[in-house]
Amino acid sequence: MKLISAGFVAENGEEFYFELLDNYQKSDCSGFVLEAVLPHLNNAKHGLLSAQAASKLKAWVEAFGEPIYMACDAPNYDWPLVNDFLLDYKCWPENLDGLPLNVSGYLSLERVEKYFEYQPMAIRHHSLWDARALAAASKGPIND
């Protein structure tokens, strides 16, 4: 498995998203990724080389100026990709806690589903849209 893109949404609504231009080949990808992920990428708008993306992610996290905890609904799958990416490029943010919060146990899947229902432009399995859905599901009502 290789990191292709990553999306982050802070509690204050700030977002950070990138697509990696040099970290994978199509031959590395599963059928699912070829069908559900790659067609929705916009490398011209969001594409970065891995070293650039790692450095920018580090700067984005450190700009909060306080301890940061990542949250993830699939920490055994998604987090190792981000963790290794930051470590490989020696870009671990000084204020980032080492382990993500696993939100799958307390976030309502129904609330995540409602997000996609009420956001017709949202794309499932797109890392930024998925991050937006998790952020929305962890807050107030989603058109309940």
Overview of this protein structure:
Strands 1-2-3 form a three-stranded mixed beta sheet. Strands 4-5 form a two-stranded parallel sheet. The protein starts with a strand and ends in a 7-residue tail after the last helix. With about 140 residues, it is α/β, with parallel strands linked by helices. The longest helix is centred in the middle third of the chain and has 13 residues, at about 50-60. Strand 1 (about 5-10) and strand 2 form a beta hairpin. Helix content is about 40%, strand content about 10%. It is globular, with a radius of gyration of 15 Å. Helix 5 (about 110-120) packs across helix 6 (about 125-135). It has helices at about 30-35, 45, 50-60, 80-90, 110-120, 125-135; strands spanning about 5-10, 15-20, 45-50, 70, 100. The mean pLDDT is about 90. It is built from six helices and five strands, in the order E-E-H-H-E-H-E-H-E-H-H.
SSE blueprint:
Blueprint: E1 5-9, E2 15-20, H1 31-37, H2 43-46, E3 47-48, H3 50-62, E4 71-72, H4 78-88, E5 101-102, H5 109-118, H6 127-137
Parallel strand pairs: 2-3, 4-5
Antiparallel strand pairs: 1-2
Helix pairs in contact: 5-6
Descriptive tags:
12% strand; alpha/beta; three-stranded mixed sheet; 144 residues
Brief rundown of the structure:
The protein has 144 residues and is α/β, with parallel strands linked by helices. The chain is built from 6 helices and 5 strands, in the order ββααβαβαβαα. It has helices at 31-37, 43-46, 50-62, 78-88, 109-118, 127-137, and strands at 5-9, 15-20, 47-48, 71-72, 101-102.
